[in-house]
Design goal:
Blueprint lengths: L2 H19 L11 E5 L31 H12 L4 E5 H7 L5 H6 L6 E4 L6 H14 L5 E4 L1 H5 L1 H5 L6 E3 L5 H13 L9 E5 L2 E4 L17 H9 L18 E4 L1 E2 L12 H7 L6 E2 L2 H14 L4 E4 L7 H14 L5 E5 L5 H10 L3 E8 L3 H8 L6 H13 L4 E8 L6 H15 L6 E7 L9 H4 L6 E3 L4 H8 L4 H4 L2 E3 L4 H21 L5 H25 L8 H8 L23 H13 L5
Parallel strand pairs: 1-2, 1-3, 3-4, 4-5, 8-11, 11-12, 12-13, 13-14, 14-15
Antiparallel strand pairs: 5-6, 6-7, 9-10, 16-17
The protein binds cobalamin (B12).
Cobalamin binds next to helix 2, strand 3, strand 4, helix 6 and helix 8.
């Protein structure tokens, strides 16, 4: 067992025991708001679904067990105002223990209100099922939903009997606080902004007026994770994703809204204008971000990912951020994301300010015509991009991950194959620090994106429009049938074929150019071959009416619940012996049980 995994289980056990030995039983803990994160498909443990590589590029598995960052901002906002919040990552608990009994677990809790995220649309099956169970067990406890997909589908969502309230928008902490107060004091509901609710008179849609122009009103306190783990004796319930303990990458959001118009993005400028009512991006202050990063650094040695392109906020903003980071001198690696090629001078500025840094860049396609169709006139050429890579590699940049996507407007199967040729060209730059990844856009084209709102104008065809239709899609037998779109250039079957072909070749190139070991390459190769074979067998079974997926097939499919087109470990940073600062954890435990900590 790795030291961190060992430390994780020891701490997990320790939290649990301490919670009881100190007479503070989990059950008796007051909870004003219980935040639940559901798996994508509620009964994924019983079903046999070939989900495919839809989550291969993120730390989560196909269960999409990562809860929204917003859970932490909500928790810290409420905590500062004296309310007790508990986060429970049900998805992760269900993954880790096949016998974990959700209704039994929930029946034991006694919260005043329950919040469930329907942020990412792939949760529309699990989130509504969990809401149904909560309502059944605790009929008097209000069930509140929120997140981007809740915002989009709020009218449909509120009609479900298990849903009492839906919050709209990308920022909900203050209105949610207002609602929790109103529910306990019997206050009026029609003045709470961004709230969709119902009573005997029908459905009410309060105006969407809470759109904060500063993001500094709320903190994202990493210590809350430890705090909740100790308070409720439940470490697993608050972990962000499976394996986080060994790969504690953390994300710091920098912006809400966007200036770019990417066709498939569910948070593009156009989408935000309509969905979150944000006419332009709003940036978090460098001071707030660096404070947040410093707090993370006290706890974790893992990389910190700055979500969003700092340069979108302007040169002065980005320069201030670097200046503050320089002064903070954090030991963690800082990961920068760029939406377009930054000036080379900016890379030098990063290098002067930070000793350990890396880059994530998503050109989506190597082909200019495809990039233009996706992003509007994409303002950079491959030559510009390569010049950036070379400049960064000449500096102390530790790592460059380049991401490509399948399912873009104007993209053909041939173009996807040529993207892999281009990856080889990038590998031939001859630096092991640069690697490439490719994955399909899936499982869904995002609601609110231009590809979803005006599919025909952008060459898309949708197989689902409503929330209920998406729920039905999620329980289809394979990802080819789950995808909610195809394009004028690729059918769903072609999207799947192009993905496996591209993944197979990219895997071989990674072995050839030393990006992964032969052993890892062989495992991925075998995984892709088996996934292809399973797809054929599922199709054959499905084509016979009335045939239910056989148990043999079920068992085989279940083995495909993690990575298929690449090995997830490629996404993570090399492990350290100890990822967390034990001293800080001990200090927290001490503070919780015995009062102020010794310095
Ligand atoms: C960072 C990020 C990630 C990170 C995860 C960060 C995290 N844990 O939240 C990573 C890279 C892992 C990721 C993964 C995915 N992502 Co993402 N992600 C983003 C990104 C770029 C920023 C999000 C952010 O910074 N939020 C800031 C925090 C503070 O706010 P928040 O979490 O949104 O929470 C607020 C509100 O949403 C709301 N809220 C949220 N939940 C709840 C619950 C309740 C009860 C209430 C009341 C309110 C509420 O209130 C919160 C507080 O104000 C957005 C795009 C964008 N610019 O918004 C895409 C975005 C949200 N992701 C998207 C998608 C599709 C995904 C994936 C499904 C992609 C995939 N197939 O792999 C996965 C799902 C991961 C999972 N569940 O396991 C889409 C969502 C579209 C949709 N409607 O479904 C977006 C819009 C990007 C896009 N493609 O267009 N993502």
């Amino acid at each position: 067992m790795k030291p961190d995994t060992l430390l994780g289980s020891v701490l997990s056990d320790c939290f649990h025991r301490l919670a009881f030995t100190c007479g503070k039983s989990i059950r008796s803990k007051p909870t004003d708001l219980l935040l639940l994160h559901a798996p994508s498909v509620y009964d994924f443990r019983e079903r046999a679904i070939l989900y495919g590589p839809v989550s291969d590029m993120i730390p989560s598995s196909t269960v999409f067990e990562m809860y929204p960052l917003g859970f932490l901002t909500i928790a810290s906002y409420m905590q500062e105002r004296g309310l007790k919040v508990r986060i429970v990552n049900l998805a992760l608990k269900m993954m880790n223990n096949r016998r974990f009994d959700v209704p039994r677990f929930l029946a034991d809790l006694n919260p005043k209100a329950v919040g469930i995220d329907l942020h990412w649309l792939p949760h529309c099956h699990g989130a509504l099922e969990v809401a149904r169970i909560v309502k059944e067990l605790h009929p008097k406890v209000p069930v509140i939903m929120g997140g981007l997909s809740s915002t989009y589908f709020h009218r449909e969502l509120i009609d479900y009997p298990q849903v009492d309230f839906v919050f709209r928008g990308d920022s909900t902490e203050p209105p949610l606080y207002q609602l929790l107060l109103a529910l306990s004091n019997g206050g009026v509901l029609d003045e709470i902004p961004n709230l969709t609710w119902k009573d005997a008179a029908g459905v009410h849609v309060n105006p969407h007026t809470y759109v904060p122009m500063s993001l500094d009103y709320v903190d994202l306190r990493p210590d809350l994770i430890a705090d909740m783990a100790i308070r409720y004796g439940d470490l697993e319930g608050v972990l962000p994703f499976n394996g986080w303990w060994s790969n504690p990458i953390t994300a710091v959001f920098t912006v809400k809204g966007c200036a770019y118009q990417c066709v498939t993005c569910g948070s593009s400028h156009t989408t935000c204008t309509h969905l979150t009512k944000r006419q332009q991006p709003v940036f978090r202050s460098p001071e707030s971000m660096v404070n947040n990063m410093t707090a993370i650094s006290r706890l974790s040695r893992g990389p910190i990912f700055l979500v969003g392109d700092l340069l979108q906020g302007g040169d002065a903003y980005a320069a201030e951020m670097l200046d503050r980071l320089h002064k903070a001198a954090l030991p963690n690696e800082i990961v920068f994301e760029f939406f377009t090629v930054p000036p080379i001078s900016f890379l030098h500025d990063i290098d002067r300010s930070i000793s350990s840094w890396s880059i994530e860049f998503s050109p989506e396609s190597h082909e200019q015509a495809v990039r233009n169709a996706q992003e509007g006139e994409a303002g950079y050429s491959n030559e510009d991009m390569e010049a950036m890579f070379k400049a960064a590699l000449a500096l102390r940049c530790h790592r460059i991950d380049v991401f490509f996507m399948i399912g873009l407007p104007a993209q053909t199967s041939r173009s996807v194959a040529e993207t892999i040729d281009y990856c080889e060209h990038l590998f031939q730059l001859g630096d092991q620090r640069l690697s490439c990844f490719i994955s399909p856009m899936g499982p869904f084209a995002d609601p609110g994106s231009r590809s979803f709102e005006e599919p025909e104008s952008f060459g898309f065809h949708l197989f689902a429009h409503t929330l209920e239709e998406h729920r039905q899609l999620l329980v289809q037998s394979s990802w080819e049938r789950i995808l909610n779109y195809e394009t004028k250039w690729m059918t769903r079957a072609e999207l799947v074929d192009a993905t496996y072909d591209a993944a197979e070749r990219l895997n071989e190139l990674k072995v050839l150019y030393g990006r992964i070991s032969r052993k890892r390459g062989a495992k991925v190769r075998q995984g892709i071959a088996e996934a292809r074979a399973l797809r054929v067998r599922i199709d054959a079974e499905q084509d016979q009416p009335g045939v239910i997926t056989s148990s043999v097939l079920k068992g085989e499919i279940n083995r495909f619940s993690v990575s298929t087109v690449c090995d997830k470990r490629e996404l993570f940073w090399p492990r350290r012996l100890f990822n967390f600062r034990a001293r800080e954890i001990v200090r927290m435990l001490w503070r919780y049980y015995f009062g102020p900590s010794p310095e």
